[in-house]
Fold each of these.
Amino acid sequence: MKRMILIVVLCVAALGVVLFVQQSRKSEAKGGVIEAIEARRSIRKYSDKSVEREKLQKIAECGVAAPSAMNSQDWELRIVDSKAWIDECTAIFVEQIQGTPTGDKMLTPDFKNMFRNAPAVIFVAAKGDAYSDLNAGLLGENMMLAAYELGLGTCCLGMPLMVLNEHHPKGKEKLASLGFSEGYRLRYALAVGYADEAPEAKQRDLSKIRFVE
Ligand SMILES: Cc1cc2nc3c(=O)[nH]c(=O)nc-3n(C[C@H](O)[C@H](O)[C@H](O)COP(=O)(O)O)c2cc1C
């Protein structure tokens, strides 16, 4: 009788272990890369909470873990979490867009800065050969997904290039202060911060995908 009870107890324990492993595999799958890809959104409202530097470093490292043609790694990243730097750059931007349709759209009462109000920005520059834009793009998606996993929101931004370029009388100084190496051109800025909104997914056109028989 005792042996029977022992066998039953062992069977129940074994079943419990199997169910536990299955369950944890399921939850691993839920928190995986595909879940991050499907849930990521461009965030344009951030809380004032600053982003921990360890997290910014990790996001950047995940960026440079991206593939690049012939492992060229022809990118450079600059991380800015200085409010003074962001505000100075924003002042140049505001001067430029004030009184324009972009200004009317962006300069709302909740406007804090030109990086969609984010407290931190990662600037990505690349050298100008054939694959550099592709490489920089792959790096960017890696960073956005890593940020998502770390509980942070992001928004890839092309608009700051309006100001941060070598032809802009004031913006060129700000660009120079990022200290990119000779031959590297700024490609985009990645806003990073704690999200203060949860936007709906934007529609994707799945008809762009086709199998060829
Ligand atoms: C190269 C690039 C430049 C972008 N520039 C801006 C920008 O200047 N301002 C902005 O608000 N969003 C910008 N975006 C974000 C896109 O608008 C956004 O990814 C798109 O609407 C899809 O929305 P989702 O990211 O939430 O899926 C940019 C995205 C990319 C890839």
Amino acid sequence: MKYLSDSAKRTREIAAELVKNFKNGTTVCLDGEMGAGKTVFVQGCMEALGYDGRVTSPTFALCNEYTVGDKTILHYDLCRITDKDDLYSVGFYDSEADLIFIEWAQNECDGFENTVKINISYGKNENERVIEINE
Ligand SMILES: Nc1ncnc2c1ncn2[C@@H]1O[C@H](COP(=O)(O)OP(=O)(O)OP(=O)(O)O)[C@@H](O)[C@H]1O
Ligand SMILES: [Mg+2]
């Protein structure tokens, strides 16, 4: 499936629609250039799930953990990871949660079951994005 978004708001809306269909235990693998809108997408999902806290790229923390009701959601950003040992040492490959978001997932998603792959690319103008989803 392919969606065209013309604003960050629209990307949040598309994400909010899509997150409804993600089964419990899904790992959402997000790829796309810097500033494409991966974090905006996660924000839209979290908002739709009823989370009212701040959702930011966990670039330095590597992982953010959010709790909504009885659900635990993990949000990774692998952008700065150069060494897989770092991922092992933080328990990345054993991650268990109701939902897992991974920014800059690339091929690190391969070990996860129930993945949804999202690629966001720049469109024809500043605010246009193409959101592709593969399950
Ligand atoms: N259609 C759009 N969809 C999403 N974001 C958009 C859109 N148009 C403009 N933007 C802007 O692009 C930026 C996307 O930033 P965001 O942090 O989500 O990117 P990212 O892919 O997570 O980058 P990084 O790789 O640095 O984590 C925001 O400033 C947002 O307002
Ligand atoms: Mg980001």
